[in-house]
Amino acid sequence: MSRIGKQPVVIPSGVQVSIANGQINVRGPKGELKEPLHSFVSAEVKDGQVVLSADLSKQKEVSAIYGLSRARVQNMVLGVSNGFSKVLDIVGLGFRAEVAGQKLTLAIGKSHPVIFEAPKGVTLGVDPKKTQITVSGISKELVGEIAAKIRGLREPEPYKGTGIRYQGEHIRRKAGKTAAGAGAAGGAKK
């Protein structure tokens, strides 16, 4: 039995949820999201909450699909009411970002500036120092995907730690070459 799937999703004020033909529609102050429900899962709106149910005796995977469906509905409700955002830090000498509309221009140590165009539904922002990128939108899945694509343009390298990383992400650093063996190899003369 899915512990997550059993929990109802509370609908905040200003958010409307409707379920029709196996599809859930969530409308709020930030926008509207639509998503089909899995065939094993059914949903209904009761007393300001979305309650999901599933017949767990059908197949082995139904419990996981049940919990996943509830989590996705929760993310839709949070997205249209509050929105989601991810912050990326740019670390490196001369590395910077600029945004113009939906186009992000990155100077990340390549021979040319890298231009990344954000899809509809995602907003990009850059801080005044031009070393932080904020990816925001109402779809948690889309925000995470775009942030991962931007990070993938120049992933942090393990020696100096330069590149694009999530805010608060810890990069495991490797030790570089050391000069410990230089005295033994280069100075042994007879």
Q: How would you describe this structure to a colleague?
A:
This protein is an alpha+beta fold and 190 residues long. It has 2 domains: 3-81, Outer Surface Protein A, domain 3 (Alpha-Beta Complex); 84-166, Outer Surface Protein A, domain 3 (Alpha-Beta Complex), CATH 3.90.930.12. It has 4 helices and 13 strands. Strands 11-12-7-13 form a 4-stranded antiparallel β-sheet, covered by helices on one side.
Briefly summarize what is shown.
This protein is α+β, with helices and mostly antiparallel strands and 190 residues long. The chain contains four helices and 13 strands.
How are strands sequenced across the largest beta sheet?
A: 11-12-7-13
The average pLDDT is 89
CATH superfamily of the largest domain: Ribosomal protein L6
The structural class is alpha+beta
Q: Quick one: CATH class of the largest domain?
A: Alpha Beta
Query: What is the β-strand count?
Result: 13
Rg, Å, rounded = 24 Å
**CATH fold assignment of the largest domain:** Outer Surface Protein A, domain 3
Just name the CATH architecture of the largest domain: Alpha-Beta Complex
Series of H and E elements = HEEEEEEHEEEEEEHEH
So what's the overall shape?
Answer: elongated
The description of the largest β-sheet is: 4 strands, antiparallel
Helix and strand topology:
Elements (H helix, E strand, L loop, with lengths): L2 H4 L2 E2 L5 E5 L2 E6 L2 E6 L4 E6 L2 E6 L7 H20 L2 E8 L4 E5 L2 E5 L6 E4 L4 E5 L5 E6 L2 H14 L9 E4 L15 H5 L4
Antiparallel strand pairs: 1-6, 2-3, 3-4, 5-6, 7-12, 7-13, 8-9, 9-10, 11-12
